[in-house]
Amino acid sequence: MNGTEIIDVVYGEGWDFGRGVVLGPIGAEAAAARDAAGEPYAVVLRQADSLGAIVAHVDWSHHYLGLWVSDLHGRRFMEVDLRRLTADRLYLTCRRGWAYPDEGSPEFASDAGRVTIELWPDGRGTQIVEPQGDMGGSRHTTADVPEEQRWFPVPEFGRWKGLLAPLGSDQAPGCELREVVEVARTGEACGPNWRAPRGMRPRHLNELFTPGARFSTDRQEYTVWDPIPAGTLRLPSGRLVARDPTYGECEQDAGFTVTVAPGDYPVQLASAGYTAEHEGRTLILDEYTAARVLVSERPAVRWESALLPGQDERLLRDGQFYGFGVDAGTGAFADASTAADLGRRFWDGQVSGVLTEDDHGIAVVGDAATGTNLIAYPSGRGDGAFPVWIGRDADGEVACFVADMLILNGAELLPTGAGEDRSPE
Questions:
Q1: Residue 33 in 3-state DSSP?
Q2: Which residues are within 8 A (CB) of 308 and not within 5 positions of it... i.e. 6 or more apart?
């Protein structure tokens, strides 16, 4: 934007980039009230009668400030994702830019080059360069972004020049911001066309361990079997670790920040079956869908992420989660005091061929000296990353930890009695 021009500031539910239209326009006073209450709203900085704009999506209840910049053709070419981690500071989690090959290219064209920078408060950062967008390869390198370009002041309501700094410009010489009240156009939708990014949420975790529960995916229907006993886990420190047992020492060995009373807790493996046709025969096939540590017999009524020290849910983008990685098709639970050592024993036993697994692929490695053990189980369909959720009872006490293999996370839970009976004979 030219710094010598008048820039209009308008507020609303959102902004239609293609048409340059404010959705659900509201006045500055109403927007300020939303800002103070943590309710979502949008603020748009634009030149009069232009499709080019800077749009801020504000939702303090989710610690979020998102910026989009569009060109004179109404195409978005920059996205900036900021999170309010302290009362007065925003952290830059992601900046993404698109380079359109010509003026006729549509928004987010498949051949538009992209550069993405992803940052974490611990100093890590990754730059992903895709010169040809979806039409070519990518190059991943370490992002070297100075501290002063990672953190920004929370803009005071109405002082929107502060939005320019996260975009790479902290000055707008001679630029005057002028608040303008837009009037809703006849027939225009008034609802927002955006929402704050949210990390993955758990779904149907209790039902994964409820015999007879049924799920439907776009490929088949599943029926949940009885939970499979996987042994008793000893937690002398009360700090649970979930990890790939074949890894060496890893960050998971710190254990989750939410702890339980030292003691022994039963472990269960969840499984579900579905039918498949093979050479004219109907088969019932099983998949392992989750594993859990039962802390109490009381049902879980709410769920939260199991986090390691330093992990912060406020930083997650849509669909992201904190979890443990698996490269050997096997997950495991152990106590933080001996997880790394028992993992090495698991690996040694696997390599030497003395490790014993039951019919479900469950293996237990114990340490007589400390009284601890490690319980390993198959990780669903194999390798990947899997979240662990903490279930709390009606009193807020920990009822269980569940490692979700994500096989049925996106499935539809069917009503009781729906579908045909597929119980094993």
A1: helix
A2: 251, 252, 254, 255, 256, 257, 322
- CB within 8 Å of 280: residues ≥ 6 apart: none
Amino acid identity for residue 324 in this structure: F
Q: Residue 251 CB: number of other CB atoms within 10 A?
A: 12
**Residue 315 and residue 221: Cα distance in Å, rounded?**
35
CA distances (Å), origin 357, targets 72, 221, 335: 64, 29, 20
CA distance 59 to 201: 19
The two structure tokens encoding residue 93: 């989690």
Structure tokens at 124: 């890590």
Predicted TM-score (pTM) of the model is 0.89
The 10 Å Cβ neighbour count of residue 194 is: 16
Q: How far apart are CA 30 and CA 1, in angstroms?
A: 27
Give residue-wise pLDDT tens across range 167-181: 986 545 556 777 777
C-alpha 394/C-alpha 212 separation (Å) is 24
Residue 168: per-residue pLDDT: 82
Q: Note the pLDDT of residue 425.
A: 33
401: Cβ contacts below 8 Å, ≥ 6 apart:
240, 242, 256, 292, 293, 295, 306, 333, 388, 389, 390, 391
- Alpha-carbon distance 178 to 83, whole Å? 27
| CB contact at 8 A, 374 and 364 | yes
Does 421 score more than 70 pLDDT? no
Are 46 and 7 a contacting pair, CB within 8 Å? yes
Q: How far apart are CA 44 and CA 183, in angstroms?
A: 14
pLDDT at residue 185, as a whole number = 60
Nearest Cα residue to 26 out of 40, 11, 39: 11
